[in-house]
Amino acid sequence: MISMIDRKKSISLIFRGFNLAAQDVEALIGMTASRLGNVGDLVRPNVKTRLTRSYIGFTLDFQSSCELCDMLPALFNHLGGVDHLCGVRDKVLPEHFQIEFDLPTRTSEDVQDGYLPTDVIADVLKLRATLGFSFF
């Protein structure tokens, strides 16, 4: 488990619930995943519970001074662009496609506010992804 001290400001793109092997999705993206699991894998070592859905996540960490409006475009760029990601999504057909912000609002000395420009919101709509925010 990651402690509050170890967590960083980050953003992730996560596919959940698909029929391909997670490693195949990783190959389609062309990047190494930060986390992945296949249906039937153990949830954690030494635990008997198995995953009921496959998942894969790609995470990009940022300095605490990075603004919210810059995080999503940086992730899209890092993963090959919106059109590339739409093509991958259409091949993978995930049950859930999510973008997750992890923001240090309680542990940061900086004020954490921001906005998402309309062109970035349009990209999220094009991807048909949900946005999630985790504040720590």
SS-derived structural category: alpha+beta
Global Rg: 15 Å
Strand order of the largest sheet: 2-3-1-4-5
> What is the residue-mean pLDDT, rounded to a whole number?
92
H and E order:
EHEEHHEHE
Count of the domains: 1
Low-confidence stretches: none
Number-wise, the strands total 5
Question: What features would you highlight for this structure?
Answer:
136 residues, 5 strands, 29% helix, globular, 4 helices
Task: Please sum up the structure shown.
The protein is built from four helices and five strands, in the order E-H-E-E-H-H-E-H-E.
Explain what the structure shows.
The protein has one domain (10-135). The protein is globular, with a radius of gyration of 15 Å. The model has no long low-confidence stretch (mean pLDDT 92). The two termini are 14 Å apart. It has helices at residues 22-29, 68-78, 82-92, 118-127, and strands at 10-16, 35-37, 55-61, 96-103, 130-135. It is of the alpha+beta class. Strands 2-3-1-4-5 form a five-stranded mixed beta sheet. The chain is built from four helices and five strands, in the order E-H-E-E-H-H-E-H-E. Helices cover 29% and strands 23% of the residues.
